[in-house]
Specification:
It is a single chain. This protein is an alpha+beta fold and 215 residues long. It has one domain: Alpha-ketoglutarate-dependent dioxygenase AlkB-like (Jelly Rolls), CATH 2.60.120.590. The chain contains three helices and 13 strands. A hairpin with a 2-residue loop joins strand 4 and strand 5. The chain is globular and about 40 Å long. The structure holds 2-oxoglutaric acid. The site of 2-oxoglutaric acid has 11 residues, from strand 6, strand 12 and strand 13. 2-oxoglutaric acid binds next to strand 6, strand 12 and strand 13.
Length: 215
């Protein structure tokens, strides 16, 4: 597979939902089987786990990572680390199909030369959600974020630089991709609670791949 394969997918529709924020409907649809197989390999090395927040709560989404670094959270704060704290080994490498998808989606949205060094993988079960937050633990904000949805649908919220700014709500479905960067790179976003359902490829789950350049 090459980045061109993604870039030439005429089936996908893209929409700019805010300045520097792009919704690429079904952009990853032709590649979901390969992406899900890669997730299975990653979780066999670095299992999904529910991370503790600095406030002492547990996040409802289960998380793992691949790439040169991985994001994690515990009682001491949010940060990137070179090793998985569960295994004390390096995080699994980023599969080529992940990198190609992330780069071609970024390019489609007008962000050339995206070089993600981490893919955070969220797994949502019924009742899981991700509250409004900014992605701000990275050193490099010049590069965009590419976010890929697999499995059950969920409502994504995208706001502004302040938590209480007005929000757009978008239903994200299997194969949809959102890309944001530039002036929107640190805008608040999150997802509402996952509703019960059964997806042909992911069963009762939704997966999200979030590609970033941590720096
Ligand atoms: O699951 C999603 O679509 C959003 C994930 C997210 O916001 C994050 O990992 O920072």
């Amino acid at each position: 597979m090459t980045a061109d394969l993604f870039a030439s997918d005429e089936m996908s529709l893209s929409e700019q939902i805010l300045p520097d924020v792009f919704f690429l409907k079904e952009f990853a649809l032709g590649h979901t089987e390969q992406l899900l197989t890669a997730i299975s390999c990653i979780e066999a090395q670095s299992a999904f786990r529910k991370m503790q927040t600095p406030g002492g709560f547990y996040m409802s989404a289960a998380i793992t990572n691949c790439g040169e670094v991985g994001w994690h959270s515990d009682g001491h704060g949010y940060r990137y680390s070179q090793v998985d704290p569960l295994t004390q080994q390096k995080w699994p490498p980023m599969p080529a199909c992940f990198l190609q998808l992330a780069q071609s989606a970024a390019q489609r949205a007008g962000f050339e030369h995206f070089h993600p060094d981490v893919c955070l993988i969220n797994r949502y079960e019924v009742g899981a959600k991700m509250g409004l937050h900014q992605d701000k633990d990275e050193k490099d904000f010049s590069q965009p974020i590419v976010s890929v949805s697999l499995g059950l649908p969920i409502i994504f919220q995208f706001g502004g630089p302040k938590r209480n700014d007005p929000k757009q709500r978008i239903q994200l479905e299997h194969g949809d991709v959102i890309v944001w960067g530039g002036s929107a790179r640190r805008f608040y976003h999150g997802v509402l609670t996952l509703k019960p359902g059964q997806h042909d490829m992911t069963g009762p789950y939704r997966y999200n791949l979030t590609f970033r350049r941590a720096g």
